[in-house]
Amino acid sequence: MMKFRENEEAVSPVIGVILMVAITVILAAVIAAFVFGMTGNVQTTKTVSMQAKLDGGAIVITVNGGSDLPTLQEITVTHAGVKPADADFTLPDDDHLDVDNTNDGVINGTFSVGDVISFEPADGTSGRLLIVGKWSDGAEQIILDRTF
């Protein structure tokens, strides 16, 4: 009777390497799809510069410019956790800026380089000044955060 040689290996080493490479490629594709899919909703940072200083009992805000200034629609001013009343603001004389009569602390209009906005805080000048901008595309961002 003839004896046959028994081969106990079911898969050759080449097939094993091919399967490992295929699994690695598929895993990398899944991870890349997940990572790049997560970054699709990130908004770009807006560029607008404003500065604030104390002038006696008033806080004076000056618009310095920025590439996104033309699309800035409104700013919300908060000082020491309180939004100043509309009557407290002094705006430029040429009527391109206006206070929002329904929301305290909101100034809207077409902002220009060199605009000067001032107000006298009711509780003194010390505290945190926060200016948040809102743009025509709906984006909102902090423009200035300063403590006096």
From TrEMBL:
Classification via Pfam families: Pilin_N
Keywords: Membrane, Transmembrane, Transmembrane helix
Keyword DNA repair: no
Domain Archaeal Type IV pilin N-terminal: start-end pairs: 9-79
Chain segments annotated as transmembrane: 12-36
Keyword Magnesium belongs to the record: no
Domain of life (superkingdom): Archaea
Protein name, entry field: Type IV pilin
Protein's organism: Methanoculleus oceani
